[in-house]
Predict the 3D structure of the following.
Amino acid sequence: MSELTLKTITELREGFRGGDFSAREIAEAFNAAVVAGRQLNAYTVETPELALEAADAADRDRTTNSLKPLSGIPLGIKDLFATVGVDSTSGSNILKGFKPTYESTVSGNLKAAGAGMLGKLNMDEFAMGSSNETSAYGPVMSPWKRNDGGNAALTPGGSSGGSAAAVSAGLAPGVTGTDTGGSIRQPAAFTGISGIKPTYGRCSRWGIVAFASSLDQAGPMARTVRDCAIMLEAMAGFDPKDATSLNLPVPQWEAGLTTDLRGKKVGIPKEYRIDGVPDEINAIWDQGIEWLKDAGAEVVQISLPHTKYALPTYYIIAPAEASSNLARYDGVRYGLRDTPEGGNLDAMYAATRAAGFGAEVKRRIMIGTYVLSAGFYDAYFTKAQKVRTLIKRDFAEAFKQCDLILTPTAPSAAFGLNEKMADPLAMYLNDVFAVPASLAGLPAMSVPGGLDSQGLPLGIHLIGRELDEQGVLNAGLAIEERAGFTHRPKRWW
Amino acid sequence: MADATAPYRIKGETGDWEVVIGLEVHAQVTSNAKLFSGAATAFGAEPNTQVSLVDAAMPGMLPVPNRECIRQAVRTGMALDAVINRWSRFDRKNYFYADLPQGYQISQLYHPLVGPGEVEILLDEKDENSVKQIGIERIHVEQDAGKLMHDQHPTMSYVDLNRSGVALMEIVSRPDMRSPAEAGAYLRKLRAILRYVGSCDGNMEEGSMRADVNVSVRKVGGELGTRTETKNVNSVRFVMAVIEHEARRQVELIEEGGEVAQETRLYDPDKNVTRTLRSKEDAHDYRYFPDPDLLPLELDEAFLEECRSSLPELPDAKRKRFEGLGISAYGASVLTAEVETARWFDGLLSAGAEPKQAANWTVAELFGALNRTGKSIDECPISPEEAAELLKLVADGTISGTIAKQVFEIMLETGDAPSKIVEERGLKQTSDTGAIDAEIDKILAANADKVEQYKAGKEALFGFFVGQTMKAMAGKANPGVVNERLRAKLG
């Protein structure tokens, strides 16, 4: 592995601008790492030529002093983002071979900022999953192994599993993820990297394949908090093509970074201490509290009383929206089409969707269809919307007493492949700490806190007020500095 | 003809039946772009040429509301005196069909843009007291679907998405109509209002306006019966035919001991029958829920004020204004029925024409000529200004009414201005007593016997002398002067 692939975006930017190495050298190093890392199954499509093309443009721009914020930085793009002329399949058979004629706003923003694309990253099918095992391309392997001497294959988490594995293994310095109910934060925690889901509406959803529209948000995943700030600044921004996009200027998050948390109050929600969570999770949480105190913050105990309803609420709202969002994959206009001999239109729908969707996607379409059905709508969907409002209110009340909320990211470290596939409820529990912030549309971030006794990374989770990405990033940076997390997975691939 | 205001009854074996009618009118919003995408909306374009990525429901595409479509629906609501809901929301109506790319239609079930309003109809257009109010329950805004083409390939159906995503207003009436004639009057009135407002071109042949017809029957004054809904009826005449047919079918069914099924039906205009499309049991569960891609629609006062102030004078107000100018109720009604006619006639008035004369001339002469030549008012070769000039030539005695008809014909043919025609062809009416006297003298001399008879008391011959004089003067003599001179000479 080249030294270059060990560097952060910040370091690459500095070295490239200072003339230590060229953008082409960076791109070539990562292209090689992508090839060498194929065992991890992190990428579904490799686009070395696009990385080189952007790199050459960056090298030219350097000679003319017209550098852009991400000039020279090659990135991986989650397969949920439509990328012009490059397969964009959302990890699903039903979109196999689909090459959009358009570029998602977020990936387009990154390109416009000078970034190159290394390839498309594997993910759970339509972002539905917490282990990257529902992908039509097969699971992603975490680069991490337990220190028990065994060789068990671990999940990098999901749904942005390919994204997390790529950053963690040095197959990209930064990547895009999307987060509907923890899909950036949980994989970041599992692989020892940082990832932030901004406030709902910060990043345009245009060109991102919809899972649950009221929850979906794009965000960056990278090795450091500063790298996340750099990427998020390029990704975010008002987009008139997305009616839910926030019409606000993008703050200069990187320039605003500080680890001085004096005067800040950090809330610790008592409802996040739940039975059955390993002591090590609570221990890293307590460690996080100490670090933030050390950075000058005051710690206060808070209550988010409706926390226990968040997961069931999420598993009504998200599938309901998904059942409708995924209706367009019908075999009529693009993607897979299966027309049984002698069958009519309904037979084509049934055959196409039976062949094109995996088990988890079908499960969620059925749940979503059920909760929206006549006679069940009020009992499930309307009730869930009401609870969602209560959960939002919980946060609004809590933020009268504190500026930030600190929790663990996930209730466990990375688990083994196939460990939870047979038990969807156990799988869904992975996102128990992540989902409330999604329902409330709040900015939230996971940063690495340390390793557990098995040598696996554990994440610390920060939730901020609406639009206060800066507060989240600053607290994340304060933890990062104190945690001194420099662990990398030992290379076995 | 039966009294237009008499109740409409179906004579059954068991007595008289009343029919109860409600209409859901789908009116395409006049707009250059679709409801949630920037795609164009031209009618009759080549298949799939008016389609954006959003309309084709490509992965990751999102709807963004088109302000103009919302504005037109709000203006329509205001024109129907309806409640405008400052807060409304879009819902998804989920179902699978090949002409519905998203797998759902974006519509408004729970919180429509426009609430209750009403439309005033005249049961007898010659009687301004024969008014009836038809209630409007709501207007909501929704997307149209595409179209399947079954005639392009022996074994396959093709899909044309040009209409996919086009903005529709669904105008839902209350079940207030009691006869085919009332439904016809309601539709015509609604169409006129939409066209005045400019929110829909009302073109039923091109599908810009279509109606779902809800019909039930009951014994006069009895409980409401079960209704059927006949979908997508695309002319006023067909709507009336559907009601007649459906009411009779239901009465016969009930009287034979059957029951009306709550179902959706289709009208076949060739055979003039309706038939079952799907029964209640097959009804879709549309799983309506709020569209998470769209924020609620919140209208501020400035927007509403702009909508209000941009409303034109509406048919009823215009009719009353015309009546106030001395125009007959019938004339006012005819002149305001179509926005183009009303606009043309208002042009005639502003060009200085005297209202009553102008109304009589427009209804009798102009409409007659347009009918004869098969032209619409928009294709009228005569401008309101030219027509006003013609009427002025009559009013000030420059030409006679008879000559005016000639001049009008020449105007239609040549498009020349009336004064030019009168000048060039020497059609000016003469009041020159010298010339008139000379002709009168000749005529009296040539008809000495008739002069004798007249003087002996046969006064009816006076008209003969007038006619002869006018003929001799080639119609250009001022009839008043001719009369006066004749009386003087005949003593």
About this structure: The interface with chain A takes residues 53, 56-65, 92, 94, 96-98, 101-104, 159, 285, 287-289, 292-295 of chain B (CB under 8 Å). Chain B has a mean pLDDT of 92.
